[in-house]
Amino acid sequence: MEKKRINKYISEVGFCSRRKADDYISAGRVYINGIKAVLGSKVNIDDEISIDGEVIQYKDKKKVYIAFNKPVGIECTGNEKIKGNIIDFINHKERLFTIGRIDKQSEGLILLTNNGDIVNNVLRAENKKEKEYLVTVNKKISYEFIEKMRRGVRIMGRMTRRCYVEKTFENRFKIVLTQGMNRQIRRMCEELGLRVTKLKRIRIMDIHLSDTKIGEYRDLNDEEIKQLFNQK
After folding, report:
1. Distance between CA atoms of 125 and 180, rounded to whole angstroms?
2. Is the pLDDT of residue 62 over 90?
3. What is the pLDDT of residues 79-93, one digit of tens each?
4. How far is CA 21 from CA 26, 35, 124, in A?
5. Is the pTM of this model over 0.70?
6. Choosing from 23, 46, 52, 103, which is the catalytic residue?
7. Domains in the chain with CATH codes
8. Residue 103 annotated as catalytic
């Protein structure tokens, strides 16, 4: 294992968050091979790390991959100082990382894992993968609106990719994206004169919410987990 910062090591072991680890280090409660650690100290797997006299070390932990049905009002952040953050809400026994995000006002499917090593790789591939949403807006939807959404809308200085859009009710539509610009669907609708009143993500690749209720999560099955590693 390459040398890594002590706070990251403590977090990955599952003892506490990086921020909390910094507090322990600043308080002089962390030792590396019997020597008091300082902020920024680096360690490797052969070092003995102790906190309050207790030696901590990596264990062969089972990798966790879950699909969570996020309620409106929950922030997709691991920052424990932010009220209503997703990690505190789920309260899983493992230290989890979100794979991507959906904004606070939206609800639906988000994936989380304790395998922090794969998160960035999955995110890089995510823009090529389908993500499906159900959207409600504040006015009746016209044929022109659907066509413009399909062809692409200029937001944040560039055109969105062509995408699948289907009207499902007078003020509702389904949209499938293969990119993830910030608040993309909301910005697209606003550019065309409509305001999103409800937005729910129901699918990422071939991973669906299924029967998972709002505020609950389920473990991914083996086939779903394989999709996270298939990044072509």
Report:
1. 11
2. no
3. 778 899 998 999 888
4. 9, 16, 29
5. yes
6. 103
7. 4-56 (3.10.290.10), 65-127+207-229 (3.30.70.580), 131-204 (3.30.70.1560)
8. yes
